[in-house]
Amino acid sequence: MQADGGKSYDDINVTPMVDLYLVLLLIFIIMTTAGVQGIKVDLPKGSKAPAIGGPKGKAVTVNDEGKIFLDTVPVTLEELETRLSEHKSKHEDFPIVIRGDGGTQYQQVMSVLDVVGRVGITKIGMATQAPK
Fold it and tell me: What is the pTM of this model?
């Protein structure tokens, strides 16, 4: 195709398309991070001591129904032991935080502590809320 000045218009302007892709990527990132939430539990009150955790740390949650979650994934006690053993083989010394709902049965939290002890994890923290 020739223009009036004899110039050819063979190039396609992709700038608007790139802008559209960037906007869609931004929307996707925002919606994905907004959808990732933890398991809601009513934590008991505690002190303002620093918490343990980190990129290699794991969180075990026991909700008010007594169900167990490993980093928001529902597991049984056997699955919990297997997954923690696998993680320990990759990361020798990692912390674990146990979050128990204030209304849950104490026995389920003790069962989780037994599993953690059998796996051989020594850095254990109990999550609490700061007093008001």
Answer: 0.56
Structure tokens at 99: 């979050």
List all residues 6 or more positions away from 64 whose beta carbon is below 8 Å from its beta carbon.
41, 42, 101, 102, 103, 104
Reported as a single tens digit per residue, the pLDDT across 66-116 is: 888 888 888 988 998 898 888 888 877 788 888 888 777 778 888 888 888
CATH topology for 58-126 is Nucleotidyltransferase; domain 5 (3.30.420)
Q: Where are the domains of the chain?
A: 58-126
**What tokens does 63 get?**
């909700």
d(CA 30, CA 97): 27
C-beta contacts of 65-73 below 8 A and 24+ residues apart: 65/104, 66/104, 66/105, 66/108, 68/108, 68/112, 69/39, 72/37, 72/38, 72/39
With a CB cutoff of 8 Å and minimum separation 6, the contacts of 41 are: 61, 62, 63, 64, 99, 100, 101, 102, 104
3-state SS, residue 129: strand
β-pair partners for 98: 60, 126
